[in-house]
Amino acid sequence: DTEVTQTPKHLVMGMTNKKSLKCEQHMGHRAMYWYKQKAKKPPELMFVYSYEKLSINESVPSRFSPECPNSSLLNLHLHALQPEDSALYLCASNRGPLAYEQYFGPGTRLTVT
Amino acid sequence: GQQVMQIPQYQHVQEGEDFTTYCNSSTTLSNIQWYKQRPGGHPVFLIQLVKSGEVKKQKRLTFQFGEAKKNSSLHITATQTTDVGTYFCASSTWAGTALIFGKGTTLSVSS
């Protein structure tokens, strides 16, 4: 199984809502990532989990809260988002560290209204 | 900080023509990775280069890493409509703290 799955595929939320994005992989990878991608831009790294511990937080606002319940799962909790947070949120995993190729999930298309 | 510049931003070719995208850095890179993202899709890993002067081929795709490890290129021979998408180069920092993406080259192919 070389697949990273993400749910939901699409999400529309208001600025006062709380929602969560989910990511799962069963490749035995020990590093998992969240990226944000705006249209016609490259992915921007948000968080890195290595062996279930948060190792990198790229100065992401606290309205984004990551969680790694176990080595296969990664969540991104969203609260009080702004319209400019609308983007494609990509999850990725690899053997760790960043020097290894990453496997990306299909992403969650988030719209904040 | 480390930056990876990628050109061109857009390229349109006729099917059967060749295509090349280039990545350049002012600093020595530890490695270079290449990803392809189809329209509406997600990035898919193509290849990684780590050695100075390395050249790797995948069917019609040829990847090169410069001797000084400051530049890289992806060349597609005889493009097909299935090659459409955005090609990103990316490199991890020496400290392994981030993966820096180039801005990408979007390829369109007309038949």
What can you see in these coordinates?
The complex is a heterodimer of chains A (113) and B (111). Chain A has 113 residues and is an all-beta fold. Helices cover 0% and strands 57% of the residues of chain A. In chain A, the strands form 2 sheets. In chain A, strands 2, 4, 5, 6, 9, 10 and 11 form a 7-stranded mixed β-sheet that branches. With 111 residues, chain B is mostly beta strands. Chain B has a single domain, classed as Immunoglobulins (Immunoglobulin-like), CATH 2.60.40.10. In chain B, β4 and β5 form a beta hairpin. Chain B is globular. The model of chain B has no long low-confidence stretch (mean pLDDT 94). At the A-B interface, β10 of A face β5 and β9 of B.
Please state the oligomeric state of the protein chains shown.
Answer: heterodimer
- Number of helical segments with 4 or more residues of chain A: 0
Proportion in helices of chain A: under 10%
CATH homologous superfamily grouping of chain B? Immunoglobulins
User: What is the total tally of β strands of chain B?
Assistant: 11
Task: Return the average pLDDT of chain B rounded to an integer.
Answer: 94
Query: What order do the helices and strands of chain B follow?
Result: EEEEEEEEEEE
The greatest interface here is: A-B, 20 and 23 residues
Low-confidence stretches of chain B: none
Output the CATH topology of chain B.
Immunoglobulin-like
Write the layout of secondary structure elements.
The complex is a heterodimer of chains A (about 110) and B (about 110).
Chain A: E1 4-7, E2 10-13, E3 18-25, E4 31-37, E5 44-50, E6 53-57, E7 64-70, E8 73-79, E9 87-94, E10 103-104, E11 108-112
Parallel strand pairs in A: 2-11
Antiparallel strand pairs in A: 1-3, 3-8, 4-5, 4-9, 5-6, 7-8, 9-10, 9-11
Chain B: E1 5-7, E2 10-14, E3 19-24, E4 32-37, E5 43-49, E6 55-58, E7 61-65, E8 71-76, E9 85-92, E10 99-101, E11 105-110
